[in-house]
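Q: What would this chain look like folded?
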Amino acid sequence: MDEVLTMMREAAGRTADLVESVSGDELSRPTPCSEYDVKGLINHLEWAMTLFESVGEGGGFPPQKEYTGDFRARAERMLAVWERPETWEGTCEAMGGLPKTTLARMALTDLVAHGWDLAKATGRDFQASQAAVELLVEFVAQQAPVGRKMGAFGPEVKVADDAPAFDRFLGLIGRDPAWKP
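A: My prediction, written as structure tokens:
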């Protein structure tokens, strides 16, 4: 719990910093997550934080709302839920009976993947800790077939076996590490 929670906090902080640095004229830029422009991606991130807050508390899927610009506040509420040890116990029926520990890793995946998406779309940098990236490579490699079937990941982008771990993570979730707007 503690290791993954620390990674979630770090990724949420870095992603929040990115979100808050986006200017109005950048909102229509394309992103590596082809279904979203920058504004749509931030909207998705806001919803994802509300989702992982809800399912962490044993709730269901919240309705999708329009972009509000309150990503950091939503991330902080989500993290507050996951700071409670009982949140990590059991399964989540709204997510098909997935273990809560899997949901935390899914939240981390969203934060890192979409943080990178946002950084690439706006010409900024995004870093994740080596420990987080290594955990995500292992997690995503296990989850990729189901993730693709559910539409959470795109088709795998082949990267060299000796590529940096972050590039391997991106390839597994269907992102091209060399993507440019």
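The beta strands are 91-92, 98-99.
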